[in-house]
Amino acid sequence: MTKQILKNDWHHYLHDQFSQAYYIKLRQFLKEEYATETIYPHMNDIFNALHHTPFNEVKAVILGQDPYHGPNQAHGLSFSVQKGVPAPPSLANIFTELENDLGIDRPPHGCLLEWAKEGVLLLNTVLTVRAGQAHSHSQKGWETFTDKVIERLNEKSTPVVYILWGRAAQSKRALIDTTKHHILQAPHPSPLSAYRGFFGSKPFSQTNELLIKSGHSPIKWEIDA
Questions:
Q1: How many helices (H) and strands (E) does the chain have?
Q2: Residue 127 and residue 47 in contact, taking contact as beta carbons nearer than 8 Å
Q3: Could you give the strand order of the β-sheet that contains 60-64, starting from the edge strand earlier in sequence?
């Protein structure tokens, strides 16, 4: 019997993936990587996006690429860092847009756990990375797994708002059933592209407008100390 990896209702929707050939191969790769290299996030944090935002509570999805690859940053939520760690440039730009869009003061830290608890699935397209080596775990099987997450979310009867920043996130666009769900997309918030249309895209207010129209309560985007 397969050990229950996901601790909430996501288990029902994704448990079959853990016995698939691609995932068994990915798991073996990860066992070797964690044994011989420094890998982020900690292995107990890999599925935090799913653990902190149950399937039935997902109202919006912010798709990232792969985890931050610096020490003490990544903890399983896209764009988020652990408390006490300075906000990386992309996250700092997200907070700038949050302030410009909704007038919300820059949060006192970069941990986005409160967003996750509000129903924002903070999902990366790849869930692990080798220290100092961006994209080092791409094309190892994670993309197949996160495709399946989106396919399962398509089954929700209530609309989900997808916030797609940058090409990696937008590559999942074809998987999203736009007859039911909503897509907001903009350039990535990194300093290399934020001025090409990320700033001024108003993703936070637009998400809440779409949620209210579909009968959801809006997301509280303020982050407490």
A1: 8, 6
A2: yes
A3: 120-124, 60-64, 161-165, 182-186
**pTM, whole model, 2 decimals?**
0.96
- Most distant pair of Cα atoms in the chain: their distance: 51
Cα separation, 84 vs 129, whole angstroms: 21
45 is catalytic: no
What is the total residue count of the chain? 225
Give the pLDDT band (50/70/90) at residue 43.
very high
Is the pLDDT reported for residue 3 higher than 90?
Answer: no
Nearest to 62 by CA among 154, 141, 170: 170
- Choice among 9, 45, 66, 224 that is catalytic: 66
CA distance 200 to 143: 30
What does the alpha-carbon distance between residue 183 and residue 60 come to, in Å, rounded to a whole number?
A: 10
Torsion angle of the four alpha carbons 105, 108, 111, 117, in this order, in degrees rounded to the nearest 10 = -60
pLDDT tens across 140-186, in order? Answer: 999 999 999 999 999 999 999 999 999 989 999 999 999 999 999 99
d(CA 100, CA 94): 10
Q: Answer whether 134's CB lies under 8 Å from 40's CB.
A: no
